[in-house]
Amino acid sequence: MPRLIGAVQATIPGTQAVQITTFNASGTLTTQPRTTELQYLVIAGGGGGSGDLNGSGGGGAGGYRSSVPGESSGGGASAESVTPVSGGSPYPVTVGAGGAGGAFPPTTDTTGGYKGSDSTLGTPSPITSTGGGGGAYGPEQPSPASRNGGSGGGGSYGGGVAPNNVANQGYPGGKATYNGGDVNGGGGGGGAGAAGSDRPNPAVNQAGESGGIGVASSITGSPVYRAGGGGGTGRFAGPEGSGGNGGGGDGAPNSQGKGQDGTTNTGGGGGAGGGVFAPLNPRAGGAGGSGVVITKEPAVDFIEGTSSCWDLRTVYREVKSGSWTN
Fold first, then answer.
1. Residue 150 half-sphere exposure, CB side, CA atoms within 13 Å?
2. Which of 132, 218, 144, 150 is nearest to 175 (CA)?
3. Which of 2-11, 204-213, 302-311 has the least mean pLDDT?
4. 124, 185, 258, 259: least buried by Cβ within 10 Å?
């Protein structure tokens, strides 16, 4: 006599693991099959420091945007909302390059630092951070549009600069004002976590000012600072400004030599270059550090159902013994 067959549903619990992906160059993010939202860190390329004869500004840090819960975005903003995505889908990622430092030898149009390039996470609602502003030279080269950025470039002793950051991405560069004599220096580039230092007025020496600090994130594990501003350079033999914690480059030491580049894949601003008048020795500004895009796909718990056929005699024995579960 044939046995009766019954269909039952067995369930299997599972977990899709956390996945962290770091883009140091442009590429494509393909999400895991069960991913529905992303945490992100999107940092643009830092601005270049000014090339210099003396007393110019450091480059601003690239714009900094974060959706990591409990952390901060740039400019003192809270973390943004996580972004919704579809599982198993490709999304383009653009990592911005750092802006070039001001040219050596200097010319009217190229002495100021160049703005960094934007970074973008191309989710259904794209997340874009703005490149850092270039440091200013002498009579405020480059133009204000080039100084503006995620964080603003530092000013030169040739004149002050207005706030030039992007809200919720970074801070302004430091101001610098001409005081006459030997008391002038360049302002620090703005950082994601603080403004570049202003040159005091009246000033007590001819030093360059420090770049603003970046912001720390633990998206990859231990806290790491990124997006610090570049240091300004002093006038004549004045001491340099240091780069902000987070990859900002130092200004040229004692107003002589090339500014330090911002650190690669941090969005740090480049330090200002320097040169003394005797002998005439101008030097290029440091390049801004390239940006970075980091994504985190949180773990996902799931229950997967599978259909199986059991003969009813086996089902009866399993139920009677207390071993049967649905």
1. 44
2. 144
3. 2-11
4. 124
